[in-house]
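tl;dr need the bound structure. longer version: we got a ligand (zinc ion) that a collaborator sent over and nobodys looked at where it sits. i said id run it. heres the input, straight from their email, havent touched it
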Amino acid sequence: MPNTLSPKEEIKRAADIVQVIGQYVQLKKAGKNFMGLCPFHAEKSPSFTVSPDRQMFHCFGCKKGGDVFDFWMAYHGVPFPEALKDLADRYNIPIKEAFSSGEEKERGRIRETLFKINEIAAQYFQEALGQSGGNPAVDYLKKRALSQEIISEFRLGYAPDAWDGLTNFLKSRRIDSQMAAQAGLIIPKKGGGYYDRFRGRVMFPIFNLKGQVIGFGGRVLNDALPKYLNTPETLLFHKGEFPYGLHASYKAIRERGVTVIVEGYMDLLALRKHGLQEVVATLGTALTHDHIRKIKGYAGEAIVVFDSDEAGRVAALRSLPLFLNEGLSARAVVLPHGHDPDSFVNKNGLPPFLALLEKGAPLFDFFLDQKLTGGGNSIEGKVTVLKEILPILAQLQNRAQRSLYAGRLSERIGIKEDVILSELKAAAAGLSEGGLQKNLRERGAAFEAKQRIGDVQLLNLLVHHPMAVTGLVETDCWKLLSDATTSRIIEKMFENYRKEGRFSLERLEESLENEEVRIRFREALVAESIYSDQEVKQAVREIEEKVCQTRLTNSIKAAGGDPKALNRVLLELKERDARSH
Ligand SMILES: [Zn+2]
């Protein structure tokens, strides 16, 4: 029998969406769905919903949603052809056709080429490390006490101290120089030709979650500046998007339930060499929302290890609002003076480092400590601290958490708790006035909706009990809805049904023309069914009734004083009564 499924459909059948998303987001069963913290927006309570029945996801917070391909594209930031290929590879499904626009195909082709060039460059740097010219880099890595296993696992290399080493190598491999420049590896010269971006540096490939090389960091071997040079922004590399090392650490992070966050390549590599697996690095940039969203998919807690210098202290203070906003609980560890994780663990071994992690203070307490020492203990100092921290706390959605922090704040700075709480209330009110009104409006609307068979109910009925479509398709009941978005979905439903004599939800989604309509449709799909199977008939009857009544009212209105027209209306009414008895 010929296989009639398209690769896309075949992949959708093979790749269970709960399993695919579950690799990146911690999901908990909730009714017939799974819920988790959304990887696409900041949230502290889960509104990210995955439906195994529908094989789709939807976030009630940021409204992102769709099928397994939509997730893959959004999460990995890749275009459709690449998502198709990734999932096809993973489930061993051969793909023959491409399903994308010319522009998408072109972008996919360029990305594929850039990955290939990065891979060739990574191999070139790795090989250079083994050659005699690579010796200064070998010496450096030896001095930093890295093992051969770590060097191979993270594919460290050496960019020889020459202007045209990689440039010539890529040419010999027939790589288009313009594309290599687009990968950020070589730079066009003013007078024509190209030169190497990375020269005389130890090279660290930077990986995405799939383990592909998206860029490089290069460290000098002497005191030249800049100490670290990174790939510039390219189609593949966006600074601050992925924490370094997550592709290798995520399994350990999930097992341990905690992520240790350090700053540099060498910190991470040294810790891994000593046996700490659950670690990622921010690579000298401050922590970003993207980092935390990726991390929190794997573990509920983070321990951030800061260097003891001023920059480390500032970074620690800056990260508090990020963690509070993203709802990831975090502790802070500051290393003894003059140490970074690399030097500490190489000098003392892993157990004392683990002991430090164990003693890490909650980030909030750490924040207060840092603010209050260094002049913050004067009255003016306390007021400054209060001013800084209240807006951060006011953003906390969880009231219990808020009052807990208020209590601790009161203890620490010696201001009465009720004073702090009322200040906090004022700050929170300032933030959420708009939000509160919106909430009341929405609740009012929901109450009204319950009083009649309205937009929400009708859509829910049709989506969860498709046989109801058969009963209602002749009524044009969508015309009676007050909400244009919902009425458009139902109109389309009926249209498809009439055209094909049957009804497919999947087809329907594809035929919806804009995102707003698709969002409403997804929300109805993942929602619980309002009506039980037994209640469907009754609900259909009520809707028919309502449609008839409305038609009648309209006919009477239209008839005006015309007795003949009124007569027709009465006849119609009689006929209907006869039918329904
Ligand atoms: Zn979201």
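gonna send this back to them w/ a short note. The two ends are 50 Å apart (CA to CA).
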